[in-house]
Predict the structure.
Amino acid sequence: MELPAGKKIYFVSDLHLGAPNQAESLLREKRFVRWLEQIRTDAAALFIVGDLFDFWFEYRHAVPRGHVRVLGKLAELTDSGLPVHLFTGNHDMWIFDYLPRETGVQLHREPREWSWNGRRFHIGHGDGLGPGDHGYKFIKRVFANPFLQWSFARLHPNFGIGLADFFSRRSRAQTGGNDAIFHGEEAEWLVHYCRDVLRHQAVDYFLFGHRHLPLDIELEKSGARYLNLGDWIQYFTYAVFDGQELRLWQDQDGAPPRPYTAVNQREPAS
């Protein structure tokens, strides 16, 4: 697919709306909605690459409270004809048919590939990919089990959502510190995943979230790159493909955005 002149593809992930509390989440939600309004003028497509919400579960007749601003804006964008692709993440894997039906987003649960201007993109949230982390991979299979989902839906929403919020906060407390550290390319399991994909097919760009750390890593001599989109909790970063170049940017909350130097590309502190 060729991008129309002057149009761009936008990629963003890990807003975790709802965390750590309603007041702080609302500030991020309003900031994100302002950003959505800003990019709509030149966006050819928008990809939200997982964990838009810190927790989401769709009961048959109920959904979690809040998030009306971002849901309304997404519906407005898709109504105007902008394609919006939403990937489920490890915190909101229980999105079912309500969000696609009400907001018009196109839902994806696994990594997928697109091509624009002769460049091939491999896009996904990133959880459960690559070597290791067998405990999480087992839990993910359990949570994806239809019987477990049916069983959870039998819980009253007041109890079920409260229980899920507790475990979501506990998960962030246990992994948040390690997520903020770059330990080198060989320690990045998504780098290993990308290299494995490249053994079987050609990809120009890999785009993931989940890591909460803005990264831009060259994978092979061919020039393939892996970008991690960071998050909208600490970094407020996103990626833009303008038809020629893919790079990270940082939202400045009303001021013009600025290019962002990935964590792995920074000079070490003296």
